[in-house]
Amino acid sequence: MKEQPIFTTRAHVFQIDPSTKKNWVPASKQAVTVSYFYDVTRNSYRIISVDGAKVIINSTITPNMTFTKTSQKFGQWADSRANTVFGLGFSSEQHLTKFAEKFQEVKEAAKLARDKSQEKIETSSNHSQESGCETPSPTQASSVNGTDDEKASHAGPADTHLKSENDKLKIALTQSAANVKKWEIELQTLRESNARLSTALQESAASVEQWKRQFSICRDENDRLRNKIDELEEQCSEINKEKERNTQLKRRIEDLESELREKETELKDLRKQSEIIPQLMSECEYVSEKLEAAERDNQNLEDKVRSLKTDIEESKYRQRHLKVELKSFLEVLDGKIDDLHDFRRGLSKLGADS
């Protein structure tokens, strides 16, 4: 419970390649949780990220650290203690901005904690030095208070308390001197770390410039590839049209081949028929002769028909004439018959009278 998370986000974690110091190596296969932790006991801040059971980021933030935005969704910082550079890829520029703002806040807090710690150390060191200067030496104590025997015989409670305080101050001074040496070593370590960090930042800046150039080259290459893709799509469209035309031509060729086979079949039939043409010609000549004979017979028959028609017309004329004569004869006969009837009736009447 000594460390508590104060800010949490998710990002893709990268580390600089230790061999080249230029290329990024993915530390996580996917976006993981990245958190700021505050240690109450040590008054320090850390960035921690865990991927499963593996700790991929454990970076203590110092006032000398700087978080740099290299793109709209990517940022990095160098950790001299871990001797590496961490990179984070976010899902949006807003998440990157929040993380950078929190980094600046934690950095300022770490700076304030360091300043307070140095003030406490300097105050403790000053008090130790002042106490050491005011403490009388054993020689001075002997000259003032007399011999040791006299000191022992005449020492009061105030001297005893002063001696105990003097012993405590000596111990504090010794510890302060040891702490000063320790802080000097840590300061030298921090300076070396700062130098390495500056070198890493310079290399990172050079890498950024190189990445910008590579990005520009990649963007130009991307534009060229897009133009090439457009050209290929146009070519593909033309190829599809050509394929359609080829398909139509294939269908036309198949139709023509089918017609050709039909024509070849017809030609075979015609050749077979041409073999019987002489016989057909002879039969045709025979039929022609018959036709000519039939035409002659037909002509004769037509002449006969015309003569018969003439005879029929004459016969009709005679019939009409005979009908007229027969009618007139019948009329005469009717008159004669009427006369005979009258004559008969007269004879009958005469017989009846006689």
UniProtKB/TrEMBL annotation:
It comes from the Eukaryota. One of its GO terms (cellular component) is plasma membrane. Residues 173-318 form a coiled coil. Keywords: Cell membrane, Cell projection, Coiled coil, Cytoplasm, Hearing, Membrane, Synapse. Residues 114-163 are annotated as: Disordered. Residues 123-146 have a biased composition (Polar residues). Its main location: membrane. GO terms for molecular function: G protein-coupled glutamate receptor binding. SUPFAM superfamilies: PH domain-like (SSF50729), Tropomyosin (SSF57997). Residues 1-110 form the WH1 domain. GO terms for biological process: G protein-coupled glutamate receptor signaling pathway; sensory perception of sound. The keyword NADP does not apply. Pfam families: WH1. It is found in: Cell membrane; Cell projection, Stereocilium; Cytoplasm; Postsynaptic density. Belongs to the Homer family. This is Homer protein homolog 2. It comes from Nyctereutes procyonoides (Raccoon dog).
